[in-house]
């Protein structure tokens, strides 16, 4: 790893926001990016309208009209699916570093400054993922929530040290991740067959095969709004069904049918572990938390076995 003075290299950051029907949160998301401590000449924001059917597009256009000095742009992507929106961002971006945020995320004022500082100090790094803290904006944290379900709400908090993603640390989450544009272009962009879940994992593995220097950066912090509907059982079921289904697709595309069989037994093992966790929580008087861990693995396994799971 080499380090350089921040003033020696000043790459332009392109923030990519793929949005779909997020009228309740999109303006707050944009306001947080407008209030960044980083100089406006060092970043741009590309809002990709991924075929919104509510008032999101109108709200974004009105915000841009009222703030013409901001380096923000709006583009429309007709093909539905977050991977299509994120991939469109690669083609629209002018920056060397692409920061991907969810449309319901609230960036801390120094988010972009900290990402820029990181990449300037780690010039060999291919990418990074920041800290993501949940914000229960409509309903309180449910009693069934546990750390085993952090992935369900995209909660990422791996401590206060900058370090490589490896092992159980998993990978940068699409709600708050950054990659050098050249690597995204080298791998051919996002896999648009993964339209709902799994495109961030696909990108991580594909880029890691070229350059394994992908870091967790705790100072790159966003707060992720968790709307009430996301805490409904029906949403949990659909999300985990889709997670299992798209993981099967991702593995098949990458490594073939044999790898799918191996992945099935991995999911089957995790399902068995979830039963043990359920009983462990029950013994400790927290049965409902264990039950929801079981649900997460049961629906993931079911989704893996299904031919397709349609969302959106």
Give an overview in words.
By secondary structure, the protein is of the alpha/beta class. The protein has two domains: 218 residues, Spore Coat Polysaccharide Biosynthesis Protein SpsA, Chain A; 74 residues. The chain has nine helices and nine strands. Strands 1, 2, 3, 4, 5, 6, 7, 8 and 9 form a nine-stranded mixed beta sheet that branches. Helix 7 crosses helix 9 and helix 8 packs antiparallel against helix 9. The chain is globular, with a radius of gyration of 19 Å.
Radius of gyration equals 19 Å
- Number of DSSP E strands: 9
At the third CATH level, what is the topology name of the largest domain?
Spore Coat Polysaccharide Biosynthesis Protein SpsA, Chain A
Summed over residues and divided by their number, the pLDDT gives a mean of: 92
Number of helices: 9
Low-confidence blocks of residues: 1-10
| Category from helices, strands and their pairing | alpha/beta
What count of structural domains?
A: 2
Instruction: Tell me the CATH architecture of the largest domain.
Output: Alpha-Beta Complex
Q: Please identify the top-level CATH class of the largest domain.
A: Alpha Beta
Work out the oligomeric state of the chains in this entry.
Answer: single chain
Reading the helices and strands in chain order gives EHEHEHEEHEEEHHEHHH
Helix content: 40-55%
**Fraction in beta strands:** 15-25%
Please report the distance between the alpha carbons of the first and last residues. 43 Å
Write the layout of secondary structure elements.
Elements: E1 13-19, H1 26-34, E2 43-49, H2 56-66, E3 72-76, H3 82-92, E4 97-101, E5 105-107, H4 111-121, E6 127-135, E7 163-164, E8 176-180, H5 181-186, H6 199-208, E9 214-225, H7 233-255, H8 257-283, H9 287-305
Parallel strand pairs: 1-2, 1-4, 2-3, 6-9
Antiparallel strand pairs: 4-8, 5-9, 6-8, 7-9
């Amino acid at each position: 790893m080499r380090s350089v003075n921040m003033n020696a290299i000043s790459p332009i950051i392109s923030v990519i926001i793929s949005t779909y029907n997020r009228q309740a949160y999109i303006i707050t998301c944009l306001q947080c990016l407008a209030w960044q401590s980083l100089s406006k000449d060092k970043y741009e924001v590309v809002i990709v309208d991924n075929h919104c059917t509510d008032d999101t597009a109108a709200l974004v256009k009105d915000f841009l009209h009222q703030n013409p000095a901001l380096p923000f742009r709006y583009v429309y992507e007709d093909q539905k699916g977050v991977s299509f929106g994120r991939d469109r961002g690669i083609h629209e971006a002018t920056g060397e570093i692409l920061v991907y945020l969810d449309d319901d995320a609230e960036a801390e004022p120094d988010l972009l400054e900290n990402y820029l500082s990181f990449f300037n100090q780690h010039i060999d790094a291919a990418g990074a993922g920041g800290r993501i803290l949940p914000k229960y904006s409509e309903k309180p944290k449910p009693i069934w929530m546990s750390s085993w379900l952090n992935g369900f709400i995209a909660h990422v908090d791996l401590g206060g040290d900058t370090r490589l993603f490896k092992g159980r640390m998993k990978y940068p989450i699409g709600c708050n991740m950054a990659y050098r544009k050249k690597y995204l272009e080298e791998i051919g962009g996002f896999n648009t067959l993964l339209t709902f879940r799994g495109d961030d994992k696909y990108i991580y593995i594909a880029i890691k095969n070229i350059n394994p220097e992908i870091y967790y950066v705790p100072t790159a912090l966003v707060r992720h709004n968790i709307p009430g509907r996301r805490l409904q059982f029906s949403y949990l079921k659909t999300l985990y069904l889709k997670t299992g289904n798209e993981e099967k697709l991702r593995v098949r595309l990458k490594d073939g049918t044999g790898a799918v069989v191996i992945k099935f037994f991995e999911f089957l093992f995790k399902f068995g572990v979830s039963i043990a966790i359920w009983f462990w929580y029950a013994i400790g008087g927290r049965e409902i938390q264990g039950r929801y861990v079981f649900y997460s693995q049961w629906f993931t396994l079911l989704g893996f076995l299904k031919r397709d799971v349609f969302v959106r």
